[in-house]
């Protein structure tokens, strides 16, 4: 296994906190559709393996039903709490956000999380409802139960609603982001408003949407930097100040991904990936909420 000693860099958020620029996810492949109380040992082992490689940024959500596994993996890892960056998200219990976070903390076995996100905006089309929900998120930050607060899957217009009345602005929007879904204009909107972008499904061009216009430029960069195309996709995010969240049950892959910390893409290479990616559109998540022609 590769022994990569280059640590994962941090990005400073607009509230002054810092986030490691590569996260390990406990959703998608680990998502539990059945009984939450049935513990998935493979997920615990995945979390532990990722922590032992230095993935201190862990991404969870109440809806994944794997917070207990994440908590068990964290506890068994021996990594100090201050070193960890733990995210969880609320959506199933959006009706009572304070209680949802307290329940999540119990499952995770911690006193606070580093980042708490509203998982999606689709629970309401009403601006006032979103503003009220955001107030509850702010209270949890004020109580110290979460260090930072943010959202996931929000469009700029929905972020505008929150920003209109926010005391603490959302510091992150976690969205599906890869060369085949670049959300024209949204990353600039985030930057202008002090909102960092987290990218889930960053490997889509080599997994679910494999075979497409970015293949050639990925192959060229892979050859130049002597890494796999997955590492190029992760680095493409990092070099744009975007935080990729990946996952794997394979320790070898997680180890290989750390090679993304050993080089930087040139601005021309980033542009080449952007331009090639723009030739194809692919969305893997929340497809029931968007028209196929909707590239936002
Ligand atoms: N906020 C949201 O709405 C939302 C939505 C989706 C995801 N997320 C978060 O983001 C995390 C990562 O999402 P993701 O899983 O879509 O990320 P991803 O990094 O794009 O994909 C990782 C998956 O791809 C597989 N993979 C990697 N290389 C492969 C290859 N060469 N061939 C075939 N399969 C390959 C991995 O399987 P192996 O185990 O075989 O390596 C793993 O299941 C989730 O766990 C979750 O925490 C959030």
Automatic annotation (TrEMBL):
Which residues are named in the active-site annotation? Answer: 64
Q: Which InterPro entries match?
A: AKR, AKR3C2/3, Aldo/ket_reductase_CS, NAD(P)_OxRdtase_dom_sf, NADP_OxRdtase_dom
Site annotation Lowers pKa of active site Tyr: residues = 89
Q: Which residues form the NADP-dependent oxidoreductase domain?
A: 26-276
Query: Which residues of the sequence carry a binding annotation for substrate?
Result: 119
Which is an annotated GO molecular function term of this record? oxidoreductase activity, acting on NAD(P)H as acceptor
Question: What's the protein name?
Answer: NADP-dependent oxidoreductase domain-containing protein
| The keyword ATP-binding belongs to this UniProt entry's keyword annotation | no
Instruction: Keywords in alphabetical order, please.
Output: NADP, Oxidoreductase
The UniProt entry's sequence similarity note says: Belongs to the aldo/keto reductase family.
